[in-house]
Amino acid sequence: MYKSRNIFAGPEGSSPNYDEEKVVSQILPDLLSMPDGRHISSFEEWFARKRPEIMKDYEQCIFGTSPLQAKVHCQKAGSEQVNTIKGIRAQRYDLYLSDRNIRLTQFVVFSPLNVKGPVPAFLGPNVLGNQSLTRLFPLPLSGAWTFPRPSLGIDDTGHATADSAGVHSARWPLEMIIQRGYAVVSFHNADFFPDKRDGRTESVQPLFDAYSDIPFTWGAIATWAWGMSKVLDCLKEVYSIDEKRVIATGHSRLGKASLWAAASDARFAGVIANESGEGGCAISRRKFGERISDIATHFPHWFTDEYQSFSDAEETMPVDAHCLISLLAPRPVYVASAEDDLWSDPMGEFTGLKEAAVVWKLAGKTDSEPVYRKMPRISTPLSGTLSYHIRSGGHDITPYDWEQFLTFADKFIK
Ligand code: GTR
């Protein structure tokens, strides 16, 4: 039935529910009440008392703890390149763990050539290596293990080949973004944690095993999020960027990472979570599309072990996706879905945002009212400090999505 619409039927062995009628309504954890039942009536109180509780639950049960205090610095790598026709400047930076001078990643900054002064930026990891972002500049091939995708130039052994250059340029429409006066900052997520179940040994995590008496419990998603924070640490040294106007940006598994990055690091000025699905903006208790059990089976390294214990027991989680989104209040948040991406549960993503909106209301952000209403029609974005759209098509991040994100950034970040 879904074949003609290119709907993902789930990995082998899973049989996702894609039928809204089979969704059993669940009571969601109440964002405005304390464990003793007391109702919270001001944003200040929510921020001081409720938010830390939610944060603790997310650290303990879902993403894990990370060494956020670790000091890093960066150094320019190679010389700046400019593409005068497109008006884009590209500069690579090596990022080092300061106390041991170990290089963790190389991030790339694309900024507008003809804009004076620091500009706002979209900061997001990429899944195939920096070379996959564009053909406008020759960028070094990533050396980190990447999930084999021969059709995208990643060979069977997980190495990037020259064929991967620019293969994800449609996901990163640099010209469009730069022309609107924004910079783009990206790095390969695999530099921090290669996306495989035994990826920990090749990840940055062992570097921190002796950092504290209590071991960090971060999964791969939290490690990518940590990488985002560490790149942000360095942006104060990048003169073309205003580090106070950086938007954590991510698609799918990296949408989950961008949510957690901004939840753990208040310096991110806003968040874009594109089709972040289960473990992101989608309400887990709906049991629609991808489930915790699917992630536990296929990506056990993404979250804490405790998260896997909620497989087939979503209602026992102390939190749900609306709680994750609430951690971003009162900052601007854009959640985006795609009609055919039922695996990510568009209705669940919208519901996560809608249920979180009470916290923005408490904070006096009444412009978020559009998301209180029902799920909008296809390609009819809801605009406010909390913004949302669902477009036609499948699981991807497209120029249409970016058009909306840019309009949102113009209104709420610029
Ligand atoms: C799928 C996974 C999703 C989402 C997606 C992606 O395999 O089940 O949670 O993260 O990959 O990252 O594209």
SSE blueprint:
Blueprint: H1 43-62, E1 72-83, E2 88-97, E3 102-112, E4 119-123, H2 174-179, E5 183-186, H3 220-234, E6 241-251, H4 253-264, E7 270-274, H5 292-298, H6 305-308, H7 321-326, E8 333-338, H8 346-362, E9 386-391, H9 399-412
Parallel strand pairs: 4-5, 4-6, 6-7, 7-8, 8-9
Antiparallel strand pairs: 1-2, 2-3, 3-5
Bound molecules: beta-D-galactopyranuronic acid.
Describe the structure.
The N and C termini lie far apart (44 Å). The chain has a 9-stranded mixed beta sheet with strand order 1-2-3-5-4-6-7-8-9, sandwiched between helices. α4 links the parallel β6 and β7. It has 414 residues and is α/β, with parallel strands linked by helices. Helices cover 24% and strands 17% of the residues. The radius of gyration is 20 Å and the shape is globular. The chain is built from 9 helices and 9 strands. The protein binds beta-D-galactopyranuronic acid.
| Order of secondary-structure elements | HEEEEHEHEHEHHHEHEH
Number of helical stretches of at least 4 residues: 9
Main beta sheet strand tally, sense and closure: 9 strands, mixed
Strand tally: 9
What is this structure, in a nutshell?
With 414 residues, the chain is α/β, with parallel strands linked by helices. It has helices spanning 43-62, 174-179, 220-234, 253-264, 292-298, 305-308, 321-326, 346-362, 399-412; strands at 72-83, 88-97, 102-112, 119-123, 183-186, 241-251, 270-274, 333-338, 386-391.
